[in-house]
């Protein structure tokens, strides 16, 4: 299962947490994303930064969490460092 690293307004998918910053926001599930405390504007910015998505404005934080989580599932994980 991939782990998603959120840094500034970007998200990257990884196959492992090895080598990732210890203070980074790491997300493993939609529930963790919902519990992250990220604001609606920040979730929207993350969505809009995903490759291949149409710019979107979400009406509620819950819809932003759900939409962003669906978008994250399409990211290809970065292999772990050697």
Q: Encode the helix/strand succession as letters.
A: EEEHHH
Q: Whole-Å distance between the termini?
A: 19 Å
Content of β-strand:
15-25%
What radius of gyration results from the CA coordinates? Answer: 12 Å
How many β-strand runs?
3
- Bulk shape: globular
Structure description:
The protein is an alpha+beta fold and 82 residues long. The protein contains three helices and three strands. It has helices at residues 30-35, 40-49, 61-72; strands at residues 3-7, 10-14, 25-27. It has a three-stranded antiparallel beta sheet. Strand 1 and strand 2 (10-14) form a beta hairpin. Helix 2 packs parallel to helix 3. The relative contact order is 0.24.
Q: What's this, in brief?
A:
The protein has 82 residues and is of the alpha+beta class. It has helices spanning 30-35, 40-49, 61-72, and strands at 3-7, 10-14, 25-27.
Notable characteristics:
34% helix, three-stranded antiparallel sheet, 82 residues, 16% strand, globular, alpha+beta
Write the layout of secondary structure elements.
Layout: E1 3-7, E2 10-14, E3 25-27, H1 30-35, H2 40-49, H3 61-72
Antiparallel strand pairs: 1-2, 1-3
Helix pairs in contact: 2-3
């Amino acid at each position: 299962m991939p782990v998603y690293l959120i840094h500034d307004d970007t998200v990257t998918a990884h196959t492992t947490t090895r080598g990732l910053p210890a203070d980074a926001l790491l997300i493993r599930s939609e529930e963790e994303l919902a519990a992250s405390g990220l604001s609606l504007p920040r979730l929207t910015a993350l969505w809009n930064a995903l490759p291949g998505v149409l710019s979107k404005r979400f009406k509620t934080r819950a819809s932003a969490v759900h939409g962003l989580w669906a978008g994250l599932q399409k990211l290809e994980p970065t292999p772990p460092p050697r």
